[in-house]
Amino acid sequence: MVSLDNIQASNTALKNYGPNLVGVFVGGTSGIGESTARAFVKYAASPRVYLVGRSETRASQIIEDLRALNPDGQINFIKGDVSRLQEVDEACKEIQAKEEKINLLVLSAGILTMKGRDETDEGLDKKLSLHYYSRMRFLYNLLPQLTNAANAGTAPGQRGLSSVLSVLDARGNAPLILNDLSLKENYSLRNCANHAITMTSLSMEELAASHPATSFVHAYPGLVKTSLVRDNGSLMKLALNAMFFLLTPMNVPLEESGERHLYAGTNPSFAPRDSTRGEGVAIGSDGVQGSGSYLVGSDSATVSNQKVLEGYRADGTRASVWKHTLDIFKGIRG
Ligand SMILES: NC(=O)c1ccc[n+]([C@@H]2O[C@H](COP(=O)([O-])OP(=O)(O)OC[C@H]3O[C@@H](n4cnc5c(N)ncnc54)[C@H](OP(=O)(O)O)[C@@H]3O)[C@@H](O)[C@H]2O)c1
């Protein structure tokens, strides 16, 4: 477990990257995304922030708070239903029109629903899209700006911060239904969770290999009391809130969660693949120190023993999952 003191010391050092770091928070209008954005604005010098979500009312309130927290920050809201890849593309275009580099991309848009398969008009299940395809589409679209950020260090020979963080469940990698990755025929909530989680870990490894200047982190937040239960009926909400209550001793406080996710997205131990592998650099999801993709638990330490990923790396499934993802993008967006 990384202590909160060490987390805060690391976050305080964010200022050493200099002013004008750019952070994009998809899911920044609530919960873990919002608390990570708050931590970013608190610690970074003159940051520029993009909060992506649907709720304009929430966004206005958060923007007001963040401006008070750091008057030198520039905070923007981009409205969109990002379960639709078309709206992901529109949001990315809006950001790319203003920014040449993006230092930190935090992906936490998601829902907790007990519904079965629920397709968007683009034919993807809404939950699987929010937890996997939509996040990968943001990542894929914004890779040029993430690479630019790495190349824009403030001192000669120094890399700039370039990092992607997907908040889901780094511990839960599980076997995939390989002939139905998008779960058209085999949808269940368990399969949806397994596919989103495992495909995130595999795709991040694949991207770390082809984009060695950027760090890729798949994080598990632990139990954090947020608004995640809001899209459920009142009985289900009651049950979920009761579960959170009963498990209170295990809950990670929301503000601490934001600090921990900022750490996961910015601490130099989660180094990009092409950086020097000195002491303190973490073991990557493939078991190799400093390999550029990391699985991080709620205690901010890396998660290991990922047998499922090992098999999928060896038999070529990792590459096929990324190819499948690109095929889905092509099918929907051309
Ligand atoms: N909280 C936990 O204990 C916990 C545990 C394990 C994993 N997780 C995972 O962590 C992630 C973040 O959860 P959280 O607890 O922070 O939830 P949250 O408080 O409900 O936040 C979810 C965010 O997703 C956005 N969102 C949802 N649907 C969207 C859509 N169609 N288009 C655009 N934005 C959308 C919401 O914004 P708008 O409402 O403005 O659209 C909000 O900003 C989720 O993927 C969740 O599965 C959470």
From TrEMBL:
The UniProt record lists the keyword Protease: no
Keywords recorded for this protein, A-Z: Oxidoreductase
SUPFAM superfamilies from the UniProt entry: NAD(P)-binding Rossmann-fold domains
Pfam families (alphabetical): adh_short (PF00106)
A GO molecular function held by the record: oxidoreductase activity
Oxidoreductase is among the record's keywords: yes
Source domain of life: Eukaryota
Name of the protein this chain belongs to: Uncharacterized protein
